[in-house]
């Protein structure tokens, strides 16, 4: 077994871990990154199709206000290109296809008014949260005792049934979990980080650009700057803090460091054995911030034929087993790539099916919206994030009721020489790649300060 020494060991080579390591390296600190997977990127992942086409199967899009991600692309020589959005979007509801443009679905005026009022109420609540401590808000306990699903189901909040269907479907998509599992306070915390739910629910804000070569290429280039200090296929099993430093143990190497940044999703960080054991609040928090379920399918065609129909490729069908599609065609315009999704309970149901049956149902759903050509892709590629050993779901962990008000103060607080980073802990752009980068840079700065002062923090 290899034994390595460093100033800081970073556990996890997703965007949070790579951003932390990069900041530490630039500050002149010796850093080692230990990653369980055989690749970098974490919840971003490039997959190659038989014809050589590379598709981004995890975090893919950049959007407005995501300055750090755009800046990193510029620094590392990666081009970004705008999302294709010409043509009509489709809303498929109760067997009727409704075309529309812009960010407002083609629903009736009463439904649109109900949606607008509901989102305005939610955004007003979100603005009342302290960004770095939502559990301190005046109404935090009452909001944390309710689920997002309960709030949406109340006609006083969302007056029409169609508006409740659309808003509920959107929240299934956003959290990859049934809103009945998500704390209202936890949902508001995500909204607070982006300036309101409108940011996360409007593709014109969150999905404005793609990275040429895929977002995982950015992670690969970040790791490339660190060279052999990134150690892959080395899942961390144990982290010990003996009062003078930390020992990070995987099955392939042991790292002795002055500090450690755990930059893994909470559900995975909670599987590491810590010696001494973590404070109760921290340990309970890691076990409670769980990811939802998502299956993503890429269907590849010789060309993006939907554009011939003056369709953008973006569709929403709340009651379909495949509720969302979006055009992911490369900037050359060929081949045509359609990215489609099953979320939450729908993804769990689809995941239980025989693969051949699932494929038939999936392609039928696409054909219903785009016509018979959608049923015959040149390539069909599934990515079930719940089946990924080092993700266990996607794309972010959500906070169940009672979690933030009981354990929230442990979300970012260092424990001895252990620091934390993940998109779930970000105060800005929570849940996005941008949030992961910002959380990693925050943890790195926190660690640099601790190294320079010798300060020891205990939550």
UniProtKB/TrEMBL annotation:
Keywords: Oxidoreductase
Keyword hit for rRNA-binding: no
Pfam family name, one: Amino_oxidase
Cofactor(s) the record lists: FAD
InterPro entries hit by this protein: Amino_oxidase, FAD/NAD-bd_sf, Flavin_amine_oxidase, Flavin_MAO
Top-level lineage group: Bacteria
Domain Amine oxidase: 15-446
Family stated for the protein in its record: Belongs to the flavin monoamine oxidase family.
Protein name: Monoamine oxidase
